[in-house]
Request: fold
Amino acid sequence: MLRQIRKSLIQSGSARKYILYAIGEILLVMVGILLALQVNNWNEQRKDGRQYLKYINGLIEDVNADIDDLANNERANRVYAMAAKNLMHTYTSDQKFKDLELESPDGPVKEDTLRLLLSIQRSSFMAAPTVNRFTIEDIKSSGQTSIFKNDELKREIFDYYSRLGRYDEWWQGKLRAKYAMDDIKFELLDAALLNLSNLDEDDRQRVMSEQEIVPDAIIEVVRSHKNLLIPLKTMIYYTERISSENLWRTKFATEVLHHLNEEKRRLMN
Reply:
């Protein structure tokens, strides 16, 4: 059709009409190209929007998991900190077993042989929270960090993950102290008594009944150990630092989660 019109105008010798037609044809092609680009951009925006929502949902899931892991870690951390502090108190006190007061989840106790044994055993236990990086690593590896249109949220998310290196530093310091403490524990307790934390109440009583346990003798060995103080102090220090970081990070994670959910609601509306 267009070819026939063009041919007719050329044959008629009307240059003006031909030029106007040519301009119209060019404009028609340009409009077609612009419409095609607009449709393509629209499709890309829809695709990016779906991917962005997928990332937001993934980050929500990861940060929720972080908060749960932090809570679990902090519960374990408090148990291990209590054990290390009990052992420190045993080491620095001059009290006999009958007067020695140790902390337990139910409050201070005296003449509690199991608490003494568990304090020695757990004094080198350590726990660090899991960092759920699945979504953030996917975003970075795919090179799609620009998909975030909310710059403030983007900065907050990347700041949240960039501050996790402190755990690695403290973990390494605590790990060195743990190795030293593990060696010392074998000098303080019979190997059979170093597994009490992994047993239920009945098995604990059975194992303890099979051993000749003299609490004051154990306390004397603890106080006479020349290499105990430094690694024990180190364990307590890093346990407290990790606990402080857990509390700060829980607060930060809760704020990030709130903003992620706000962004999700905005995208869904």
Remarks:
- Residues 15-92 form the longest helix (78 residues).
- The CA atoms of residues 37 and 43 lie 10 Å apart.
